Amino acid sequence: MATEIVRLEVARYSPEHDATPSFQSFDVPLRKDWVVLDALNYIKDKLDGSLAYRWSCRMGICGSCGMMVNGEPKLTCAAFLTDYAPGPIRIEPLRYFPVVRDLVIEMTDFLRKLHDVKPWIIRDAEKPLAEGEYLQTPAQLDAYKQFSMCINCMLCYAACPVYGLDPLFSGPAAIALAQRYNMDSRDQGAIERLHILSQHEGIWGCTFVGECTRVCPKHVDPAGAIQQYKLTAALEWFKSVLLPRGQQ
Amino acid sequence: MPERPKRPKEPFFWTLFSAGGVVSAFLLPVHLFLFVLAFPLGWLEPPAHDTLAQLARHPLARLYLFLLCSLPLFHWAHRFRYTLYDGLQIKHLNEMINVFCYGGAIIGTGVAAYLLW
Amino acid sequence: MSSAPRYTEHHPRWYRERVSTYWWLWRWNYLKFVLREISSVFIAWFVLVTLLQFRALSSGAQAYAQFQEWLRSPGILLLHLIGFAFVLFHTATWFGLAPAALVVRLGGKRVPAALIVASNYAAWLAVSAVIAWLVLRGRA
């Protein structure tokens, strides 16, 4: 019984040998329950063990396996081979990030920008343990829940042309996560984050292309987060102009 | 208490961009349909010159025209500035671009104010 | 191509692809985005036309009639038809994106995006009707 085949064109880059990436073709069985990640694992197991790529949970929650599949940022554990049949399927490393080797990218820039927005609960003073836990109503949870679903997969960065063009732009996920904490009723750090993000580019480089929201596998809607944040920043700006004292 | 950073300029320009976007979206289509398409092409009988001139003299009409001409220019300025940054990748010329865009909008606003006063 | 390993002191030589000047042509969504941004140029042009038209109006019936003639010239008409399409494109995209920026909560629940978009269109129709009525009612 002949197995159907699908061809994968996989980007290869080896800093030892190559000045620029090239493509290597592999023929992989077209199984209807296989995703692109399964195909890459098949390649590594049976065809070429030197292929380098990241993956972990294989179920769309760890955010490790983001790559460009036919020019689209995708989690390879969520991209079914049959959706791309008859192929060939082009696999490249996530766009707008430096390539370390093959499909592995360098993500320090994202991690730094994420750290800069202080993605944790900021309090003026910690509540003593004896006073019990912070209470939150379902409505208060609803205010930020969507933005908390981010798995840091960086597909939005690969979709955002401004991130590719402007090194100062914080990027969709970082801003969405800043909003996640700004909108959290337990958080008191909104002004602190605003000073970081509203300076220089931060959020203002965003021109609302909207691709980040379209490619997000967890429906976080970072574009919405950014526009809402721009509105907040603008209101804060006018408040600081019209009421110069009486600010913290 | 950490020192307060200086007030950023971007929120102000973004607000002007948004206001201009709203005015362009809501008011420009009907205005253009009437004055640039329907009347010149004869799809609708245009008002007589005297009637139109009298209507345009009304202070509210002048305010409407001023907003119609000024805010969309700031909308263009902000949007075109970023189009030049990202489209042509000439962000290193940002000072020149800013002067051209916002300067253009300010000049246009000045002309509008002069004509409509 | 084989050469000495491309290693700097602490990490291997990364490959950084330069973003092409024509990045916006490579994906349909990027092209739609750039067209949306270009609509602002037509908006600026129409502001200029409006100012010129007002000046002609204030200068008398003959000046105004001449301006109307200019508006009727084929090149200008074609430009204005295209420009008008771009202005409508701006309106449509502006209303379409409004729900992302304007989060309205009523009774704890978020107002659906479709309702916000529809409200914008309804307001647009109402405002347009009022303006059209104000302009057209003076005709004999």
What does this structure look like?
The complex is a heterotrimer of chains A (248), B (117) and C (140). The longest helix of chain A has 21 residues, at 222-242. In chain A, 43% of the residues are buried. Chain A folds into two domains: 5-105, Beta-grasp domain (Ubiquitin-like (UB roll)), CATH 3.10.20.30; 108-242, Orthogonal Bundle (Fumarate Reductase Iron-sulfur Protein, Chain B, domain 2), CATH 1.10.1060. In chain A, the strands form two sheets. Chain A has a five-stranded mixed beta sheet with strand order 2-1-5-3-4. Chain A has a two-stranded antiparallel sheet with strand order 6-7. Chain A is of the alpha+beta class and 248 residues long. The model of chain A has no long low-confidence stretch (mean pLDDT 93). Chain A has helices spanning 36-47, 81-84, 108-116, 138-148, 155-159, 161-165, 172-182, 190-198, 211-215, 222-242, and strands at residues 5-12, 22-29, 66-69, 72-75, 89-92, 99-101, 104-105. In chain A, a hairpin with a 2-residue loop joins strand 3 (66-69) and strand 4. Helix content of chain A is 37%, strand content 13%. Chain A starts with a strand and ends in a 6-residue tail after the last helix. With 117 residues, chain B is an all-alpha fold. Chain B has a domain at 57-117. Chain B has helices at residues 10-41, 49-57, 59-87, 94-116. Chain B is elongated. The mean pLDDT of chain C is 89. Chain C has a domain at 102-140. In chain C, 68% of the residues lie in helices and 3% in strands. Chain C has a two-stranded antiparallel sheet with strand order 1-2. The termini of chain C are far apart. Chains in contact: A-B, A-C, B-C. The interface between A and C is medium-sized, with 35 and 30 residues.
